[in-house]
Amino acid sequence: MKYDAIVIGAGHNGLANAAFLAKAGMKVLVLERNPWIGGAAVSRELHEGWIYSNCSYVCSLLRPEIYRNLNLAKHGLQVVPYGGGATFLSNGDILGNYVDHDVKRREIARHNKRDADAYHRFSRDVTRQCRLIRDFLLRTPPDPTSFRPRDISELMYMLKKFLNLGEKTMYETIRFYSMSVAEYLDEYFESDMIKAHFSGSGIIGTALGVYSPGTAYVLLHHYMGDIDGSAGAWGFARGGMGSVSKALAGAFQEHGGEIRTSAGVEQIIVRNGKARGVALENGDEIYADVVVSNLDPKRTFLKLFDEKDLDPRVAEKARNFKIRGSSGKLNIALDGVPEWPALGENNPLRFGDMHFVDSLERLERAYDDWKNGMWSRDPYVDLLIPSLTDPTMAPPGKHFMSVFVQYVPPKVKGKDWTDEDRDAFGKVVIDQISRHSPNFKDLILHAEVRTPRELEAEVGLTEGNIFQGELTMDQLMFNRPFPGYAQYRGPVKGMYMCGSGTHPGGGVMAAPGANAAREILADMKRTNVVPETELDD
Amino acid sequence: MTDNKVIIVGGGHNGLVCAAYLAKAGRKVTVLEAADQVGGAAVTREFAPGYQVSACAHLLFMLDKNISSGLGLEKHGLKLAAADMETVSLSQTGEHLFLSGHEARGGDLSAADVARLKQFNARMIKFADVLRKVYKGRPPRLVSHWQELKALAKLGLAVRGMGREDMREFLRIAGINIYDVLQEQFDSEMLKGALAWDAVLGGHLGPRSNNSVLNYLHRLTGDVDGKRGAMASVRGGMGGVTAALAKAAEAAGAEIRTSALVSRIIVENGIATGVELDRGEKLIASTVVSNADPRTTFMHLVGLKHLEAGVALQVRNIRSRGSVAKLHLALDSLPRFAGLDEKALGGRLLISPSLVELEQAFDFSKYGEISESPMMEITLPTVHDDSLAPGGKHVLSALVQYAPYKLKQGWESGRAELLQRAMAVLERYAPGIGGTVLHSEVLSPADIEREFRIAGGHWHHGEFALDQFMMTRPIHGSAQYATPLPGLFLCGAGAHPGGGVMGSAGRNAANEIIARGDGA
C-alpha cells in the first residue's frame, strides 16, 4: 500500500496540512503516536464527567481563512468569544479588562488618567502592527539569500507592505520588533500595574522576561488573532480545544483522508537522498512520495532521522534550535464557582481571563527563578473557567478551570522533575489563586498538574515548549526553524515540515500546516487549494 | 554678542573631531566646553593628590584610524603606552585565562575551544565589517530617494557579499544574545564569561539579553594599528586622545573655550540661532552642533516646548540609563594575583568568570540594586605609564558592573556600598589589596551624569540596541545628524554610530554639515 503523502503527528497543523493535501486530491495518511488525535489541541476526560482542554485552552489565532476554506463549522467547530477578565491587584482592587474599548479606557482612567489617554495610542499602534503581520501569516517566507524569482518577488511583496507603512511607522516597526515588552510599554504608560497587565502576553510560552528585548513581538503574537472578524478577540472552542482537531480531522476524512492512531513513527525512510516513507515503532513500513513531519524540529531531525541520512550541518542546527520549556498547566475540576471577593458576584468579568501579577518587577523575578532552574515562586498565571461559557465541559453546576503558568523550568536545578517537585509547584499555583478566592481550595475535586516533563512525555513537545521553539528573532520568518530551511522543505527530497516550529510559529493557528501544504502541492505540480490571506477588517 | 558660524556645544572627543573637520573645511568654529579642560568622558583627572586616572573610558580600541591619521593625532601628541594589550580573565585559584587576538591559553580551555575561537573571531570580524561600512557615513533614511536607496542597497550588498552561509548566520544572530551564541560554540565557562563581558560592557543588558551580539560586533568594529579587537592604553590616560584632538582642531583654525557652560540653545522662530552661556553671554551662530547627549540637548538645552509633541515624546523615550560605575584606587604597591607576573598586570584584567555569574550580576540592576558580586574590567595603567602616579605607587582603574543609574537606595549611600562590594570581590582575587589602598574614588552613574553632564550617566549617550541603532539613533528624524530644529545638529555618541571613543559620529556630522552647505 503506497500513499501520496504521510503526515507524522495528528496535531492541528498536521491535520490541517493533511486536509489541504487530501482536498487537492492526494491520498494521505496521518500517523499519530497517541491513541487520540489533536496533539496539544485536545479535549480529554481525565476526571469523570469533566472535559479538560488540558494543553492549549483558548482559541483566537486559528486563521479564519482556514476555518472557512475547510468548512470547519460544518465539522462541528464553534468558537464562542469570551469577554473581559481581570487583573487582581495586591491592594485588593482589580483592573478590569473589558472588551469594549471605551469601557476599558474608563477602567484604566480609574487607576491612572494619563494612561487612559495612552491606551488610545497603544491600541492604535499595536493594531497597526497586527495588520502588518497578518499579511504574512499565510505566506511562505522568502529566502533572503536566494536569487530565485519567487524569493525575490516574495521579498518585494514584504518590502512593499513595509514601505506602505510610511517612513515613521517603518521606524516604529523596527523598534517594536527589537524591544522588550516592558520598555515598549514604558513608552506609553506610567503605571507599573498597568504595564504589568499588558505585558503578560509578551511572556506566555516564552523563556524570556518582560525586560528581555524581543518580547514586544511575543505580545503581538497573542494579539494578531481574530474570531469572526473581530481582531484580537479570544474564544473557547465549544467542547474544548479537541473540537478544533476534531473538525480538522472531519474535513480531512471528508476528502478521503485516513488517520491511524497508536501508530508511533520510529524513523523516516530515506533512500538515495529521498524520503520514501516511514518505519513504525511496531516495525511496519509504509511508503509514500511525500513525508511531512508535524513534530518539532528537534524531534524531527534528531529522532526521526537515521544519522547517516542527515547532513551533519542540519543536525547541528537542530541541536542549536532553541526550544525551552518555560510553561506549566493546572487543569482543575471544581465543585462550584469560585468566589472572587474583589470582583463581586455576577461580575461579567469572571467569564474571562484572570491574572494576579501587578508589577513588572514581580514578573521579572518570576523569570529570574526560571533562569535559576526553579519554577516561579510568584508565577504569572492565565486563569480561565471555560465551563462558565461552555457548559458542556463539566456536569451541571460544576466547573472546569484551566490555569496556564509561566515560568516552569524544563529541569529543576539541572535535575529531572520528580513527582514531589510537581506537587510543590502545583501548590504554589493553588496558593496564589487562593489568596484571591477564599473558597477555591475547598472546591477542588481533581487537579492535573502539568510540568514540561508531562507536556513532553504526552504531547511530544520537546521540553514542553508550547510553540515548538522560541519566538525570538533568530527563529522567526526566514530563520524558522533554521536559515535555509524556512520554506517547509526538509533537507532531503520529499520531506517537509508543517509544525509550529515553522513560520509563522506556535499557537493554534494552523497556518504552518496550510503553508506547508501549498509548498508540497507546488512541488507535486498540483493545483493549489490553500487559501491566501483575506482579511475581514 | 559675538558672531560665530558654527558653535559646538561640548568638547568631548566627538565635538573636537567635528570641530577639526569643520575647521579644515574652512568653517569658523567655536567649541564651548563646560569643564576647565576638554575631553568630556575621555579625560585624565587627578583623583587623589599626585594620582591621575582616565576618569571614564580607560582603554582605546575603537578610534577610527582615518580620523587619527587624517587629523595627525600622533603629530599632535597622541602616544600609546601599550598597544595590543592581553586580556586576562582572572580565576580565584590562579588558573587564569589569557586572550590575545585569536589566541587563547590557560583557564579551563579545551583543545576544541582554542580552535573554535579562531573561527568564531574570524566570522565575527566579518560580520563587524558590515557595521564598519555603515559607520563611515550617515545612516540612510527609509524613503525612496535615490541617495537613500543607494545607501540601503550598499548595505544590502555588504550583507550579501559575505556569502550565503555567512549571510544566513549573520541574519540569524545579529539580533540575539551572546549567551545563546557562545553556548553553541564553546565549552569553557571562563572563555564564555570573558567573551560575554565585551558584549555587555557599558549597557543595561546581561549576556542573555538580546542586543548583546550587536554590542559585541560594535566593539569589534574597532582596531588598534589595524589589529581588530585589540586594545591600547594611552600615555597620560585617555585625556591624551582629546588633548591631541584639541590641538588638531586648533591647528585647523577652530577656537576652543573651556569653562564655558552652555545653559541653553537659543531658539527663535523655530530655528536654532545660537547659545547662551550660564553667565548670560549670548553667542549667535548659523549652526549649532551639540556634542551633548540627545536627552540633554533636547530636554535641557533646547527645551521640549520648542519641539513638536511627537518628537518630544520620542526624546522622553530615549533609553539612556547607565549601568557602569568607575572605581579608582591609588595603591601603595602592585596588587598580587595568584599566578600572575608583573607583565601580565599590564593587560586588561577581567572579573567575569562565567555566563551565569555575569547574568546574575545583571539581575540586581533590573531592580535598581547593586550587584552582590560586581563584575569588573581592571587596568593598572601605571604598569606602562609612570606619569600617572608618584614613583613606585600605582593606580587601579576599574569598570564595575552592574551599578544602575536608578538605584533604589540612592547613590549617596550606594557609593559606599558599591566600593565595599567591589573591594570584597577584588580581595578574593588579589588577597591583601585592601591594605595597599591609599585613596579611593567611586563614580556612580549619577556622578557621571553630574560631572560629565550625560543624562542618565550612560557612556554611550543612549543604550546601544537595535531600537536605537542606525536610522533610529537617537530617534528617527534626528538620525542623520540634522535635527527637526533647523540650524541644530547632533555630533555625539548618541548619534550614529554610537558610543566608544571612535570619533565617527563627530566626523560624520561634520561631513553632513559640509555636504548640506550649513555653517558657511
For the record, the CATH class of one domain in chain B is Alpha Beta
**Protein chains sharing the most extensive interface:** A-B, 33 and 35 residues
C-alpha Rg of chain A (nearest Å): 22 Å
Give the terminus-to-terminus CA distance of chain B: 19 Å
Distance between the termini of chain A: 46 Å
What is the tally of beta strands of chain A?
20
Mass-distribution shape of chain A: globular
User: Which oligomeric form is depicted?
Assistant: heterodimer
Biggest sheet: strand arrangement of chain B:
8-7-6-17-18-19-16-20
Helix content of chain A: 25-40%
Mean pLDDT of chain A: 94
Please, could you describe this protein's structure?
The complex is a heterodimer of chains A (537) and B (520). Chain A has 17 helices and 20 strands. Chain A has helices at residues 12-23, 64-69, 101-111, 113-137, 149-163, 167-178, 181-186, 192-199, 215-223, 242-254, 297-302, 312-320, 360-371, 419-434, 440-443, 452-459, 511-523, and strands spanning 2-8, 28-31, 44-47, 50-52, 79-81, 85-88, 94-96, 226-227, 230-231, 235-237, 258-260, 265-271, 274-280, 285-293, 327-334, 353-355, 380-384, 399-406, 444-450, 495-497. In chain A, the strands form 6 sheets. In chain A, strands 1, 2, 11, 12, 13, 14 and 20 form a 7-stranded mixed beta sheet that branches. In chain A, strands 17-18-15-19 form a 4-stranded antiparallel beta sheet. In chain A, strand 13 and strand 14 (285-293) form a beta hairpin. The model of chain A has no long low-confidence stretch (mean pLDDT 94). Among the domains of chain B are: 2-41 and 63-79 and 236-319 and 455-516, FAD/NAD(P)-binding domain (3-Layer(bba) Sandwich), CATH 3.50.50; 117-221, no CATH class. Chain B starts with a strand and ends with a helix. In chain B, a hairpin with a 2-residue loop joins strand 13 (262-268) and strand 14. Chain B is an alpha+beta fold. Chain B has an 8-stranded mixed beta sheet, with helices on both faces. In chain B, strands 1, 2, 12, 13, 14, 15 and 21 form a 7-stranded mixed beta sheet that branches. A two-stranded antiparallel sheet of chain B has the order 3-4. Classes of the chains: A alpha/beta (537), B alpha+beta (520). Chains A and B meet through helix 6 and helix 13 of A and helix 5 and helix 12 of B.
